[in-house]
Amino acid sequence: MTADSASARRLERALASLRGLSVGDALGSQFFVPANYPLLKQRALPPGPWQWTDDTEMACSVLAVLSAHGRVDQDALARSFAEHHDFDRGYGPAVNRLLRLVREGGDWRELSSALFQGQGSWGNGSAMRIAPLGAWYADDPEQATHQAEISSYPTHQHREAVVGAMAVAAAASLAAAPGGPPSPEDLLDGVITLVPRSAVGAGLRRARDMLDYQDAGTVAAVLGNGRRTSAHDTVPFALWSAARSLGDYEQAFWATAQAGGDVDTTCAIVGGVVASGGAGAPPADWLARTEEPPAWLTPFLP
């Protein structure tokens, strides 16, 4: 395989993951609308179009930077986040302020490290956007976790947020492996091996022990479902759900969404991981109802 064809294959995998992430995000966000909530219990689709949120907008920046640089360039990523920041996409207040200040000339290193009394944000924002990076590095899960770690710092510097991003990237990389997706047990075992000790890691070990549970609501009650919007309250459950439904996007989405919580984010993570291998692509009619990627991403796409 030539360097050009390898790069094209990486972009193809990452774009497949982005599509899965975007559909999960956009459809998941529809169930915050009270009129649509009964549809969730019926596994019925709300009318389109479905608008995506900050999860997809930031994931587009990740893909654009990978396409332009072949790796994560933190300054380029921070600039892209800031330049394409749409206040109405559902960003948290801390990141809204950070990106506005970066856009006005602030140093992301100082701003990100100063969040939450100097602890940095432990939110799920760096995990929600990172699955396409994992798909990009399907041939190198260790590099996926390294690049995911680097990608977190412009907005999320707390160790749990960083490890959350590493875990999702590792899962997407393993799910997109050239030999086909692993078993649920092998997926979570692989992720656990690739991430450092942390609350996220402890949650992943509990998730591994609960793979034989059938009720997602019970599992979410133990692992969390993103209701607190922290990485360790979000990532273990999302990867439990993804691991159990590799190759079946619809099943993965509904099981995740019906557990409640931060539904757009858990479904974005799950959708990005499941779709990263290509076999778990979202249904065509779901994709058709989902808002198109932003126009500024077009120059970076094949």
Automatic annotation (TrEMBL):
Lineage: Bacteria, Bacillati, Actinomycetota, Actinomycetes, Kitasatosporales
Cofactor binding: number and manner: Binds 2 magnesium ions per subunit.
InterPro entries: ADP-ribosylglycohydrolase (IPR050792), Ribosyl_crysJ1 (IPR005502), Ribosyl_crysJ1_sf (IPR036705)
Cofactor names: Mg(2+)
UniProt xrefs under SUPFAM superfamilies: ADP-ribosylglycohydrolase
Single GO term (MF): hydrolase activity
Annotated Mg(2+) binding sites: 53-55, 262, 264-265
Keywords, alphabetical: Hydrolase, Magnesium, Metal-binding
Protein name: Hydrolase
Coiled coil feature spans: none
